[in-house]
Amino acid sequence: MKQLIIDRFDGTYAICEDKDRAFFAIELGELPANTRVGDVLMISDDGELRVDAEETERRRSRIAEKQRRLLNQ
Q1: I want to staple 4 with a disulfide (CB 3.0 to 4.6 A). Which of 16, 22, 35, 57 is the partner?
Q2: How much is the pLDDT for 73?
Q3: Cβ neighbours of residue 2 under 8 Å, at least 6 residues apart?
Q4: What does pTM read for this prediction?
């Protein structure tokens, strides 16, 4: 199973990044409904895409905490 993070949307593609900082373009029509920038996508061995809501929330919380600490210094 592979994990990607949606970095941005560009035209009809979602530009995603993996743990090695490699980028991939996925057509918007292939994404699960209501997918947003910052979502964590899991790609199964058979190519099925799903959003990992738990990991997405964990990442968003960690980023928000880092921003809070940075801005309050």
Answers
A1: 16
A2: 65
A3: 18, 42, 43
A4: 0.85
**H/E run at residue 23:** strand 23-27
Which residue from 17, 21, 23, 22 is spatially nearest to 5, judged by alpha carbons? 17
Going from N- to C-terminal start, the domains of the chain cover 2-71
pLDDT beyond 90 at 1: no
CATH architecture of 2-71: Beta Barrel (2.40)
Q: Measure the CA–CA gap between 30 and 56, rounded to whole angstroms.
A: 19
Which of 15-22's residues contact partners 24+ apart within 8 Å by CB, and which partners?
16/41
